[in-house]
Amino acid sequence: MVTRAPAPRRLSPKQRRARAAAGVRRGVVSVLSMMFLILFGSLAAAMAITSRSNIITAATHQHVSRSLGAAETGLEIARARLTEAATRFVVAKGVVDSGFGQRLWRGTTNPSDGQVSVQPPTSYVNSQGTPSGLAEAVAQIHAMDNNTVVVAGISAPTIAPAPSGADPAVYDLTHWVRTPAVALNPQQAGVKSGTAFQIDYAPLASGTDIRVIVTGYDFDYTTRTTAASAGTPTYVTRRIMQDFTIVKRVNSAIVSPSKVMIGKNVLVEGDLGAAYTDVAQQYGDPVIMRSDFWGLETGLNTQLTRLFDALRDNDIDDDNRLRLGHPIEGAAVPDFSNLGYPGTSSDVTADGYLDEFDIFMMYYDQNRDGKVALSSPLSAGTPNAALSPEFVASGGLVIDDDLALLLDSANPDRNRNGIYSFTDANGNGVFDPGIDTLADTEEVDPSGVPAHLQTYIITAGGTSYVYRDQVLGFRDGVLDRRDSYAKVRGRIIIRVSDSTWTAAQGTWMNRVRGSIQAPTGSSSLQLNTPTSQLPDLDMHSFDTTETALQNAANGQTFAQQVATSLGVSVAQLATWTPANNPPEPAAPKYFPLAPDADNDGLPDNWETAHFEKMPFSSPNYYDFYYRPVYENMVFKNVQIPEGNNGLFRSCTFVGVTFIRSRTGNTHPNWGLYGKMMLDNTNRPKPFPSRFVYTGSFPPDFPGVTPPVMMATTPLDKADIPADEAPITQGYDTLPDPLVIDGARVVDTKRFSNNIRFHDCLFVGSTVTENPITYTQTRNKVQFTGGTRFTTKHPTEPDNPNLNPSPEHLPEIAKSSMMLPNYSVDIGSYNSPPSQNVKLKGAIVAGVLDIRGNADLEGSLLLTFKPVLGEAPLLDVMGVPAGNPAMFNSTIGYFGPEDGDDEALDPDTLPVVNGVRIVGWDTDGDGIADLGPGASPPAGAVAVPFHGFGRITLRFDPTMKLPDGILLPLQIDSRRETYKEASQ
Amino acid sequence: MIIIMVGVLAMVEAQGVFIRSNGWSSHEATGTYLAGEIRERMRTLPRHDPVTGLALVSVNGTPTLQGLGREPNEVTVADFDDVDDYGGITFGLGGNFDGPIDAFGRIIPMTDANGQPMLGPGGVPLPLQGWSQTVLVQKMSPFNYSVVANWTDTQAPSGAFPGREVDQYPLRVTVSVFYQDPLAATPEMVTSMSWIVPAE
C-alpha cells in the first residue's frame, strides 16, 4: 500500500510576510555555519601542516648539516691518519708508480723496490707490531680509537676485500680498510647519540690513489622505518668521498739540517726549510737572511733603517712588510715626504704593503714615473733602452747591475702559461735582449697596442709581435711594480721553537731581512715545525747503492779517457810530463802528480807540482792540496777514481760524472791525516811534520809495520814510540792508527776526493758515493770560474759525443748534482761574472755554498747535520770541539761575523782606487794571494771584487726525485675529487 | 557568529604559528650559514700559532702555558692565523669583534627586501642585526673525541713513542650562532656546529 506524505502546509501571504520580517532563515544559517567551519578548519589545518613541514624541513636540514659536519670531520681525520701512516714508510725509490704504490698499500714490497723501512708511530705507544703496508698502518691507528660505535656491523678495523659490486676498473678489489664509527659525543651503553663518522679506505685501481669514503651520522634524528630497515631506525647520514695520492717528494726549495744563510742578491721561490737546532751556539741562528738593498748607498740605508725600525715593533705577521690598511702596521708606516712620497703614497708598487723595494723605488725613481731605469748596459736592447738611467751613482757609475738584472729577470714566466724559455743565440746561457728571442710571443696589430707599450713591439719578417712576459716586466730594462719583488716567495719553515731561538739568540727578526710573501692564507714563518712537514735529513738519508745515476757513469775508465784526450795509451800516461803538452792554448793538457815513491808524504814532483789553498782562494784556509791538472779535455760518463784530487780546467763533462771516494771515513782524524801547511820554502809540507820510525809499538797494531811515518805531534797511538808510550800523558785517549786494506794510513787524501772544476762545462749530472762521515776538506767539490751546468750542449746540441746518452736523460733530469755528505762550493769567494750555473732537480750536498751567478730549479737537499761531539766536531782526543753553527750552507756572500769563517764579507772590503778589492795578486794569475788587508809587495796587483752575483732558488713542485734519497712518503689531497652523496 | 570569531582567531593564531615556525626555519638556515662561514674561514688554519706555538715554559719554576689564544697585537680578524686565536671570540652582537663575519673575514651586511645592503651613517653597510657567532676551542683526547683534555696535558715518552707535547692534541671547535630579537632580553642560540681539527 502506498501512503502519501501529507502535503506541506501552505502559508498565507500574511504569514509569509510575518516570517520574513522576523528574519528567520533556519537552513541558510546552518549551511553557512558548516561552510565557515570547514573553511576555517581547513585553513587552520593547512597552516598547521605547512608550519610543521617548515619545522621538519628546517630540523632535517640542521641534522643533515650535523651529519655532513661529522663526515667532514671524518675526512680530515682520515687525511691526518693517512699522512701519519705514510710518514712511517721511508723509501729509497724516487717515484711512487702504480706497482710500487699498490705494493706499499698492500705490504707486498720486494727487493726490487729498494729500501723500505717502517718507523715507529709517533702518535701512540705501539703494541701492535710493525705494519707490513700502509693499509695495516692505517688500521693500526684506527684500532687506537675509543668511543666507537658499531654501524654496518663493523666493530673493529678490518682489512677486507672490496664490497660486492665494486667496479674493478675503478677500485682495487682487495685491501680495503673498513673502520668502526667514531662518536664525537659520549655514548651510553646500547644507546647511540650525537654524531659520528665512519671511514672506509678504498685503494683505487691506479695503485697510487686511495679513496676515502666517510659516512657521517646524526644519531639524534631518525627517519621513518621502512620495510627494508625491518623496524630499525634509519639515522640521518651523509656520505662524502675524496681521493688521496701516495707520493714521495720534498716540499721546499731548501731543506737543511745545518744553518742556512741567504745573502744579498739571492731570491727564493718556494719554502725555505731550516732544521738546524743547536741555537745556543755562537752564530746559532738556524737561518739568517740579508737585505738585497742594504749597502747600495748610504742615503738608501738611512731610509731602510726607518722601515726596519718600524718593522721591529709593528710587523705582526712577520713578513718584513707593513700593511697600509692594518690598524697597527699601517699606523707605523714612516712618512717619506722627504723623498716626495707622503702618507700612503710610499706604497709605490700599489700592492698594499710598504717594503724595501718600495723604498728602493722611491729613492731611485728620479722622474717619479713609477719605474727605475737600469744602467745603459742592462737596458740595451730592451723596450726602455731610451730612458735615462736612474739606478746609477753620480757620474753614471753602475751601482749593482747584478741586483738589477736579478730583479728584472725574476719570475721569468710572468703570465704563468708555462712558457718562458729563450733561444740563446750567443750561447752564454743568459737572455740578452735584442740578441736572443723569447719563446712566449703574441702577434699584435701595432695600431692596437697602447702608447706606453709601443716600444715593446718587435718587428721581424714583416710580423709585429710582443714577448708576453716582457710586457709584464720581464727584462724590459726597468724595475717597477710588475717585477713583484719578494725576497722569499714562499714561507720560512724552522724546526726550533720561537721561545728556544729567542732565549738563545735574543730577538732574531732583525737578522731575517727581506720581504716574505707567503701563499694566501699561510703564515710567512712557521716555527716548531714537525718532521712530517720538514724532513730530518742527515747522512743516513741516502742509500747510494741504488742510484741509477751512479750506474749511468759507465763510460771508459778515467785513465783511458785522459789518454784518449792526449792521444796516447794509458801506459804512456805514467811517463807523461808537462813538457809533453802541446803548445796550443785550447789543446788538452795534463800536468801529472808524481807518486810518493820516497815516502816523504809528498808527491815526488812537489817542487813543481800545482798546489792551492783549501778552500780555494779562501782568506781563511786550513789545508793545501797538490793537484794533478787536466785541461781542455772531454769526459763522458766518467768515474773519477778516489784520491785523484785533481784540478780540471776548461774541461767538458758529458753525461754522469761519478766522483769516487772511500765511504768508511769514520776515523776521528780522517780530516787531519795528510794535512799540509806552507813551510819556509813556500811549498806545502805535511803538518804536523813526520819522520821515519823503525822501532816497535807496545800494542801490536794490525797493519802497522815499521818503518812508519811518525808525526811529531801525535795524532794516534802509532805516533808514540814504544819507549814513550808508558810516560805519555793522554796516550789512552789517542785513537788507534787508521788502517785501510791492511796498511797504516797517514794521508787520507788518497782515499777521498777533493776536486776543483774551473771554467768547466757540465752537460749532465755529477754524483758521488755517500761517505759515512762529513769531512769538509777531504770530500769536497769546488766549482770555480765560469762553471756552467746544462743538459744540452750549448753549441753542439746534436753532437752525441757532447750530449748525454738518451737513456740517461730521465735520471739526469731528476738531479744535476747528487753529492751527499760532500762539502760543495759553487763559485769562489770572488766569482767572476762569466759564472753561469744552472742546476735542476734534487740538488744534494752535505753542505753547500753558492756564490756568483747561479739558478737552481728544483730543491736543495743538504745532508750534513752538525752535532757537537760527533765527527768532525771532535778533537784528536775525542773531545767535543768546534761550533756546529760554523758548518753552514751559504747562499750568497757572508763573512766571519755571520759565522762564515772561510769567507770575506764584501761590505767590509777595503776600497782601492774607488774599487772594492778582495786582495792582492802576487803571481799574475788574477787570483788573490794575499788578503785585502795585507801590505802588497812590489808588483802585486789589486784584485777587484767582482760583485755579489745573482742567485735564484726556485722550487719545482713537479720534479721527480732520483732513487736513493731516503724520505718518508707523503699524502696529497686531491680536492677536485671531493664528492657528496646521501647514501 | 561565535564560529566565525573562533575561526578568525584560529586563523590569526595559525598565522602566528606559521610566521614563528617560518621565522625559526629562516633563522635556522641563517644560523647554519653563519656557522659554516666560520668553519670555512678556519678550515686551513694550523691549530696553534705558527711562530710562537703553544708550549709549557717554566716561569719562576712553574710550568706555564704560553701561546694559547690571540697573540699580542693580533687585533683584526685578518691577524688570526691559527685555530686557538678564535677561542672565546664572539663576532657580532655583544661580542668582542664586529660581525657576524663571512669566510673572508668580512662583516656580513644586513640586506633589504631587494637584497641590497642596508647602509648606516656614513654609507657604511650595517652588519646583520641581532646575530653573533661564538667560537669555543677545546683540546681533546687524541683517541677519544668526546673527552675534553686540559690545555696543560702532555704525555710522557714511552719506548719508541716520543711523547705528546702540549701542542700535539686534536682540537674541537664549536661555533654557536645566537640571535637576539629586538624585543628579547637575551640572545637565543639558533644552532651550533662542531668539528675536530686533528693533530698532525
Please give the structural blueprint.
The complex is a heterodimer of chains A (983) and B (200).
Chain A: H1 13-22, H2 26-87, E1 89-91, H3 98-106, E2 116-118, H4 134-142, E3 148-149, E4 158-160, E5 176-178, E6 181-183, E7 195-203, E8 209-223, E9 234-247, E10 252-256, E11 259-262, E12 266-269, E13 271-274, E14 287-289, H5 298-314, E15 322-323, E16 353-354, H6 356-364, E17 372-373, H7 376-379, H8 401-409, E18 422-423, E19 437-438, E20 441-443, E21 458-460, E22 463-467, H9 468-471, E23 478-479, E24 488-489, E25 492-494, H10 498-505, E26 525-526, H11 548-552, H12 558-566, H13 570-573, E27 589-591, E28 610-614, E29 623-627, E30 629-631, E31 634-636, E32 639-640, E33 647-649, E34 652-659, E35 676-678, E36 684-686, E37 690-693, E38 708-711, E39 739-740, E40 743-744, E41 753-758, E42 761-768, E43 779-784, E44 788-790, H14 809-814, E45 817-826, E46 837-850, E47 852-862, E48 888-891, E49 911-912, E50 915-921, E51 941-944, E52 949-955, E53 967-968, E54 970-981
Parallel strand pairs in A: 10-13, 10-47, 11-14, 11-48, 12-24, 12-52, 13-25, 25-26, 30-33, 31-34, 32-34, 33-41, 34-42, 41-43, 42-44, 42-45, 43-45, 45-46, 46-47, 46-48, 47-52
Antiparallel strand pairs in A: 1-2, 1-53, 3-6, 4-5, 5-7, 6-7, 7-8, 8-9, 9-54, 15-16, 17-23, 18-19, 20-22, 21-22, 27-30, 28-29, 35-36, 37-38, 39-40, 49-50, 50-51
Chain B: H1 2-42, E1 55-59, E2 62-66, E3 90-92, E4 131-141, E5 144-148, E6 171-179, E7 188-197
Antiparallel strand pairs in B: 1-2, 3-4, 4-5, 4-6, 6-7
